[in-house]
Amino acid sequence: MSQRTAIGGGSRPSLRRGARRHFDAVRNQNVLQGPERIIVLDEIGCAILDLCDGGRRVEEISALLAARYQGDAAEIEADVTGFLQELADKGLVSA
Amino acid sequence: MNAIAPAGPPLALLAELTHRCPLQCPYCSNPLEMVRAAGERDTGFWMRVFDEAAALGVLQVHLSGGEPTLRGDLEALIRHATSRGLYANLITSAVLLDAARVRALAEAGLAHVQISIQGAEAATADRIGHYRGGHEKKIAIARAVNDAGMALTVNAVMHRQNLHQLGAMIDLAAELGAGRLEVAHTQYHGWALRNRASLIPSLEAVKAADALVAERRAALEGRLVIDYVAPDYYANQPKTCMGGWGQRFLNVTPDGRVLPCHAAETIPGLEFERADDRPLAEIWRNGAAFMRFRGTDWMQEPCTSCALKEVDWGGCRCQALAMAGDASAADPVCGRSPRHAALGERAMAEAAAPPPEFAYRRFGK
What we know:
- The complex is a heterodimer.
- By secondary structure, chain A is of the alpha+beta class.
- Chain A has three helices and five strands; from the N terminus they run ββββαααβ.
- Chain A has helices at residues 43-50, 58-69, 73-89, and strands at 14-15, 20-24, 29-34, 37-41, 93-94.
- Chain B is an alpha/beta fold.
- Chain B is built from 13 helices and nine strands.
- Chain B has helices at 43-56, 74-83, 99-108, 122-129, 134-147, 166-175, 190-194, 196-199, 203-219, 280-286, 288-292, 317-324, 340-352; strands spanning 12-16, 60-64, 87-92, 112-117, 151-158, 180-185, 225-229, 249-252, 258-259.
- A nine-stranded mixed beta sheet of chain B has the order 7-6-5-4-3-2-1-8-9.
- In chain B, helix 1 packs parallel to helix 2.
- Chain B is globular, with a radius of gyration of 20 Å.
């Protein structure tokens, strides 16, 4: 049995099998779908997942977003880590 | 006429492709009067339903039955649903699958497979499903689903004859590499209602199961998601059945009728329209069966004045009918229902007596 996925700065996250992104044109929103799960993604959530290709590390993803949104790097890394940990605990992200 | 708020779009469609099934589980959610093979709809029908469902706002399609893998067109249906942006989920007993077909389903675009298990070991599981060799086959196919790169859920329907194996069933799901386990206490409709005395556990056994699930869920966080469907006969608060009648969910039967829930046919006086007679969107928005219990205007006391009426939406209509004789009554599971105490007493009395033989789920009676 696998161990719990713990997201840290060195993790290389990607969508887990069964997790799929979709643009819901009827409700005009982005969603992440998984087994019996539908999660609505805001712009930041989409921007984070766009960068999760299984190669980039969380600290690289956070640095790219900090540059793009001109935010505090440490704060953004904490947000990114929290977001991805929540998705990992829902079984939608692996690292 | 009461004002009923217009319905938002549904999120999920349960497509009951067939009622045929090699298993005979005594708690099957199919109706007692099942649709025979000759009444089933063809590939083109289901493709049109998926087109209309996607346009209406459905995001997930659950391919179910009976046993959906009996349909030779399953791959074509998955391919079509996926091409419309629907998230395709297969609900299967797995006993008719082999590794090659599992790979073909994955290639067609299937995202997620739910495999039912009836127990933790073959003797118990095969007796409950009334299918020799079934348990062993399920385990092999669960591994094949993993190998094919699809998400795996293990579905465990619990009752007095397998509840003692719950811990071992959780272990089995984790060992099989499932990302999700659904531990669902039997809901007493259809076949399960007929077999209730053979299935209903004691209050003590239910409390032990609640505690076990809470403990294992915490221990397995981040490795195995455990969704738990509580046994509502011993509850005080009814379940939010279907997320509210006609609010999130629709069901299409093997012969093409559109239902607000899979058990809705038990309610007399409701007429169900066919998806080939009227657009799905119109049935959803304006169909009489969907309007009948949508919102809160149909309610009577104690629901009308209840602060939770838009939380649980009065609970389950089919259970209200079956237990209270009135589909508009409060779900008798609710502590505010005048029938609540009698329900719990009856459950405890049945659970205390020896279980009768199963009436297995079969065509004809």
